[in-house]
Specification:
The protein has 428 residues and is α/β, with parallel strands linked by helices. The chain has 13 helices and 20 strands. Helix content is 33%, strand content 20%. The chain has a ten-stranded mixed β-sheet with strand order 9-7-5-2-10-1-11-15-19-20, sandwiched between helices. Strand 16 and strand 17 form a beta hairpin. Helix 3 packs parallel to helix 6 and helix 6 crosses helix 7. The structure holds inosinic acid (IMP) and magnesium ion.
Length: 428
């Protein structure tokens, strides 16, 4: 049976995709990351061990899976090799289980320099500084370096030289100390090439052939729908397409093969970096969400901005991604609240809006209209069935489900792999 499933973040990232991907991977053979790069931080806790993955799909933590980094991902080879070593040090056998698309683009040292220089200017985005934006710029400008180029010394060195010349002109205008040298860069990458070559495959042919054999494929997105370069809060977005459409271009798996789209939503809202955020809280409630929810970036350590659940935002992202199911995470973080607010619509200049506005200037003026639901003030973190949850927690979840109009099939009540309640098992 075809179970090809996409996992998408439906807010601004950090919804808990890592945990859900890990959980679902039990029932999948191949896990594919389809966009982004080492800007992502996917945290998975198993027993008393905590793993933070930036590039390799969280499905690697099961022994039976194959993990593929798709063509839509921009890969920093150094981060990838370090992450592989980290897994080996934890005793995880990764041999023959990780593949990279030979069409994936390589993040070069100059991308990181350009990322940090751009962030020093007035138009700061609050990026993770991992070189993601500049690498996608080069991809779109047809100047990028693909993994396949790394294994062809002549092509690689001529591309590096051309790029370095162009990038150094830009870098020199701001900081001469950051200028890069082509020869040392070529030498450094040539050393890595043999190990990287052993990981590279034509992932499009591989994945589609495996699908034909009946293998179950899970497509893992990074970031979230509101960080999508087309559909997010542009320009305060990442440079790729985390939404479900991006899963097809970023993996080469056609839309007709997709069976389920599972949206991951946090029981409240967070965002890192700049950009508008209608339900953001600046009061004690916001501080409580950050503290109890440990809302600090897994990649950069930055404190995350926190706010109440935003229904207009989710109406928009549920529609945009074509969600068939929802995994609601971090319900336990609300355990201590006496009452919980949910934004049901926005007031914009006296008009009521039900969907997240497409114009950033309108988003900036959107004032949340809230409904208050009673809290439960009980510990949910050891509940193992939906019925065991306190009544008000069940009511909160059912209220959200009714208004989003998509079944909430997973409820996560803690960071550990076992802290999850499955409501209506839809997997075969
Ligand atoms: P970039 O992806 O590093 O270019 O950063 C662009 C924007 O996306 C910034 O606001 C980042 O904070 C945000 N961002 C990138 N990756 C993540 C993530 O994994 N979680 C949350 N925000 C992210
Ligand atoms: Mg994260």
């Amino acid at each position: 049976m075809n179970t090809t499933t996409i996992i998408v973040g439906c807010q601004w990232g950090d919804e808990g995709k890592g945990k859900v991907v890990d959980l679902l991977s039990r029932n999948f053979d191949i896990i594919v990351r389809y966009q982004g790069g080492a800007n992502a931080g996917h945290t998975v806790e198993i027993g008393n061990k905590k793993y933070v993955l930036h590039l390799i799909p969280s499905g690697i933590l099961w022994e039976h899976t194959i993990c593929v980094i798709g063509n839509g991902v921009v890969v920093d080879p150094i981060v990838l090799l370090e992450e592989m070593n980290m897994l080996r040090e934890h005793g995880i056998n990764i041999d023959g289980r990780i593949f990279i698309s030979d069409k994936a683009h390589v993040i070069m040292p100059y991308h990181k320099v350009l990322d940090s220089l751009a962030e020093q200017g007035e138009n700061k985005i609050g990026t993770t500084g991992r070189g993601i934006g500049p690498c996608y710029v080069d991809k779109a400008a047809r100047k990028g370096i693909k993994f396949s180029d790394l294994f062809n010394p002549d092509i690689f060195s001529s591309k590096v030289k051309r790029n370095i010349e162009e990038k150094n002109d830009i870098i020199a205008k701001t900081d001469c100390n950051k200028i890069l040298y082509a020869d040392s860069l070529i030498a450094e990458f040539s050393k890595l090439a043999p190990e990287l070559q052993s990981l590279c495959i034509d992932s499009v042919v591989y994945l589609n052939t495996e699908l034909q054999k009946g293998r179950r494929v899970l497509l893992e997105g990074a970031q979230g729908a509101l960080l999508d370069v087309d559909h997010g809060t542009y320009p305060y977005v990442t440079s790729s397409s985390p939404t479900s459409g991006g899963a097809c271009t970023g993996s080469g798996i056609p839309p007709t093969a997709i069976r389920e789209v599972i949206g991951i939503l946090k029981a409240y809202t967070t965002r890192v970096g700049e950009g508008p955020f209608p339900t953001e809280l600046f009061d004690e409630d916001g501080q409580m969400l950050r503290k109890i929810g440990n809302e600090f970036g897994a990649t950069t350590g930055r404190p995350r901005r926190c706010g109440w659940f935003d229904l207009p935002l989710i109406r928009y992202t549920a529609m945009l991604n074509g969600l068939t199911q929802i995994a609601l995470t971090k319900i336990d973080i609300l355990d201590k609240f006496e009452s919980i607010k949910v934004c049901t619509s926005y007031d914009v200049d006296g008009r009521e809006l039900k969907y997240f506005p497409s114009d950033l200037e309108v988003v900036k003026r959107a004032k949340p209209i809230y409904t208050t639901l009673p809290g439960w003030q009980e510990d949910t973190s050891s509940c193992s069935t939906f019925d065991e949850l306190p009544e008000n927690a069940r009511n909160y979840i059912l209220w959200l489900e009714k208004h989003i109009e998509v079944p909430i099939t997973f409820v996560s009540i803690g960071a550990r792999r076992d802290q999850v309640i499955q409501r209506a098992p839809k997997q075969e």
